[in-house]
Design goal:
It is a single chain. The chain starts with a helix and ends with a helix. Helices cover 83% and strands 0% of the residues. By secondary structure, the protein is mainly alpha-helical.
Length: 64
């Protein structure tokens, strides 16, 4: 019984280690840290797109 518990604990640990290793080897991008410049550029693009959509909605509303 104790042997089964020990094997189970080590098995669970091995599965977790394999999953973490596959994630690390796969390069899923979770470790990517966005630089300040990238962040500001992304936010600027999002704001520009949002403003463009709002302007289109305003123009459509004025046509009615």
């Amino acid at each position: 019984m104790e042997l089964a518990f020990i094997i189970g604990v080590f098995g669970a640990w091995a599965v977790i280690a394999l999953l973490k290793g596959a994630d690390w080897l796969g390069g899923s991008g979770k470790g990517y840290k966005e630089s300040d410049r990238d962040f500001l550029n992304r936010v600027a693009r999002e704001n520009s797109e949002r403003a463009r959509k709002q302007l289109e909605e305003i123009r459509k509303a004025k046509r009615w």
